Request: fold
Amino acid sequence: MMLRFVVGVAGLWCSINCFAELRPQSAAELCTVLNDTHLRANEWTVRNIGQEGCSSGARPISSDRVDGNTISFSAEGIDGIPNRVKLILDVVQPSDDDAARRELVKATKRLSVRVLGLSIPHAFDEAILKAAPISLAVGSGRASLTRTVVGKKSYLLTVVME
Reply:
């Protein structure tokens, strides 16, 4: 019985250490965390106004429509330590917003695992698909979704992880 307990504690300890390894260890690593989704951020830079961070360019959701919906990634921090990451979905073509929201769900899941140590809950997926605001504790931090109306038919969905 005691042996099972020891093995269980050892297994739990190893799994906690594995989760810790998923989180970016440096600002430079954070800037490349979404390269596999073609959201390549520039290098971590310090701006003259005291802000630090990196950001990707806006990537079109649909490769055949460059003037359509886009997604982008950015990270912010202080003294070379990242403390906030954002995914921004800019919806300008409401006819394509379902595909855009699905792309945001995919990128959010990847970012959450890599930055917070756990995948976002299903409720967060649903909130993105409905474009409804939500804020939840996830892993080692917090994830929130906001919707900002930009024009008559366009809006921004912003996922922030801290």
